Backbone:
């Protein structure tokens, strides 16, 4: 159990276009989802925290108008990279958790990631 | 969350035990030690966590020193598929408000298992 999927697994787009990435919890309800970004040979950097039915909380330095996050249901969160540029090329990873499922130990379940390449 | 220090890389022979150290000297009393790993081009995978007692599951063992300032992740019989970046994260699991659930990833240890 506790499987998280992402779609697409990879995407190539032209500079200036917008790209939407989906994160789904397949067999549990995720009250909280997290979006990370990972550049080559670097660690994961948290971008934002998404709670179902409320606005996302962005980390310092992450532009909320550029990275639109929607968590409209307990099983789906989306990240839209608006007006993408080559410097947005990265590996985007989501994770999901539910206190009732993970208990006090707050285990997070990660998706497989989406590789975005902006030409 | 407390900062952690890990060696940047380690090697291990297939079939042998891999012992990955982590220093977390500023850990507070109610923070847990979590270990995740990331195989190349995949999302991180949870391995194990603990507070102060040693823990074991089907993947690994976690040894936490008595003063809780360091820990060791043990993969008892490493295989080639265990080659990955291993992240040691100190985290307060039931933090409220905007800190809830946040995991801070350091640079981790690149474990290479060779034949």
Residues:
């Amino acid at each position: 159990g506790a499987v998280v999927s992402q779609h697409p697994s990879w995407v190539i787009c032209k500079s200036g276009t917008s790209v939407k990435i989906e994160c789904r919890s397949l067999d549990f309800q995720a009250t909280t989802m997290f979006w990370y970004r990972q550049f080559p040979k670097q660690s994961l950097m948290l971008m934002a925290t998404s709670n179902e039915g409320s606005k996302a909380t962005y980390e310092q330095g992450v532009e909320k108008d550029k990275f639109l996050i929607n968590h409209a249901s307990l099983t789906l969160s989306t990240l839209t990279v608006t007006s993408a540029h080559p410097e947005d090329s990265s590996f985007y990873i989501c994770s999901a958790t539910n206190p009732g499922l993970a208990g006090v130990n707050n285990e997070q379940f990660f998706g497989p990631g989406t590789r975005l390449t902006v030409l | 969350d407390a900062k952690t220090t890990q060696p940047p890389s380690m090697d291990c022979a297939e079939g042998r035990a891999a012992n990955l150290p982590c220093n977390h000297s500023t850990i507070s009393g109610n923070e847990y030690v979590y270990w995740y790993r990331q195989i190349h081009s995949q999302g991180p995978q949870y391995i194990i966590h603990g507070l102060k007692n040693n823990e074991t599951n089907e993947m690994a063992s976690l040894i936490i020193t008595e003063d809780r300032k360091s820990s060791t992740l043990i993969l008892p019989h490493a295989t080639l598929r265990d080659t990955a970046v291993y992240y040691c994260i100190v985290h307060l699991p039931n933090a409220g408000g905007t800190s809830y659930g946040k995991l801070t990833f350091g640079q981790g240890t690149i474990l290479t298992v060779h034949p």
Notes: The mean pLDDT of chain B is 92. The radius of gyration of chain B is 14 Å. Chain B touches chain A through 24 residues (CB under 8 Å). Chain B is about 0% helix and 45% strand.
